[in-house]
Design brief:
Its main location: membrane. It is a single chain. By secondary structure, the protein is α/β, with parallel strands linked by helices. It has one domain: Rossmann fold (3-Layer(aba) Sandwich). Helix content is 35%, strand content 23%. It contains nine helices and ten strands. The longest helix has 14 residues. The protein starts with a strand and ends in a 16-residue tail after the last helix.
């Protein structure tokens, strides 16, 4: 089986010389949901931005379903960016059109999708996130939780193979948090979830990796990682007070 994502020996340093990634190896199989954990400054965002070629220039290799991320190859990068959908922490970074439907249609329209096929993509994506009835609304009139769901729909309309979620539960009320979790669990795609919300990682991702100082320092079932107090403390990860990972039944 071809890996959904394969990262081999990935390194990257910023122009000021700061090393952000130091030989990262990571493989995700199709359909996996994996949490990417780590303290601030660990390199998580830098890693994510390599998945669709926004950042590049260091050693190593990134492949999406066997297709290498090759920044100089415009055709290949266009296909990579279709395969890898990134949902940013702030939904307003992704919503800028007059209506919800137009926002969701924007990506596939840029790929040349038109007419009935484009309408079908919009309907499919909005149905997946429970927002079809809001298709004609102005995005910024929606609640924050609804805007986040629409942001997910803008990516789903591209029919990606990998969905990257950056802090998906941040600033959500409990009901919106639960609704988004149900949506994520229902999606037939590979998910890489960057989060500081450790209970959310435990709920949604059977596997987690910890990135710290640009290196993968742990890769194991989420419950095992969260139960290892020494490991957690060593990498500045902390569960909410009184939270017992063993009490969560998957």
């Amino acid at each position: 089986m071809t890996a959904a994502l394969r990262i081999t020996g990935l390194t990257f340093a910023y122009p000021d010389g700061r090393e952000a990634l130091r030989g990262v190896d990571l493989t995700l199989t199709p359909g996996e949901r994996v949490a990417l954990l780590g303290p601030n400054g660990a390199g998580k965002t830098t890693l994510v931005l390599h998945l669709n070629g926004i950042l590049h220039g260091g050693a190593g290799r990134v492949e999406i379903s066997g297709l290498p991320v090759t920044p100089g190859d415009r055709k290949a990068i266009t296909e990579i960016r279709r395969r890898v959908g990134v949902v940013f922490q702030d939904p307003d970074d992704q919503l800028f059109m007059p209506t919800v439907a137009e926002d969701v249609a924007f990506g596939p329209a840029n790929l040349g999708v038109r007419g009935d096929e484009l309408d079908a993509r919009v309907t499919e994506a909005l149905t997946a996130v429970g927002m079809l009835e809001h298709r004609d609304q102005i995005p910024h009139h929606l609640s924050f939780g609804q805007r986040r769901r629409v942001a997910v729909a803008t990516v789903l309309a591209m029919r990606p193979e990998i969905l990257v979620l950056d802090e998906p539960s941040s600033n959500l009320d409990p009901a919106s948090r639960r609704e988004l979790a149900e949506i994520i669990e229902s999606l037939p795609v590979t998910v890489l979830m960057v989060t500081h919300d450790l209970p959310y990682a435990l709920e949604l991702c059977p596997r987690s990796v910890i990135l710290d100082a640009g290196r993968i320092v742990a890769d194991a079932p989420t419950g095992e990682l969260l139960a290892d107090r020494d490991l957690m403390a060593a990498h500045r990860l902390e569960l909410p007070f009184g939270f017992d990972p063993a009490a969560v039944r998957r």
